[in-house]
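Researcher: Here's a chain I'd like modeled. Treat it as a single chain, no partners, no ligands.
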Amino acid sequence: GDVVLDQAIGGTVLSTDAMLAELAKYFYLQGKFKVRLINVGNYAGVYDQDGQVVSNITQANYSQIKPFLGKSKSVDVTGGMAKKVEEFLTISSLGIDCWIIDGNIPGNLASSVLGTPTLGTLIRAF
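Model: Modeled as a single isolated chain. Structure tokens:
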């Protein structure tokens, strides 16, 4: 995300995660596409208190994971991992699978598109 000019208020934060969620929702509601939202980063997924990748986040376990969703290591004006997970939980309520994966692992994106990433966190509403 980044800060962008806005005619109404002068400037605002534009979240890439929010944009992706809206695009996923749009295509999903068209009913013509199988939609899967994949966030590719330089992190393996969402980490727990021991630094291990959480394989699944749902509405049921989100309250247990939420305390470990800290700030980004770099500057992030859009809310970091916590906001990303919240956005993805919201969009997953439509039945859209959302993945947070490591883009440094060869083939991880391709396998994620097919539904079986090498390493990452799957976010589903249930």
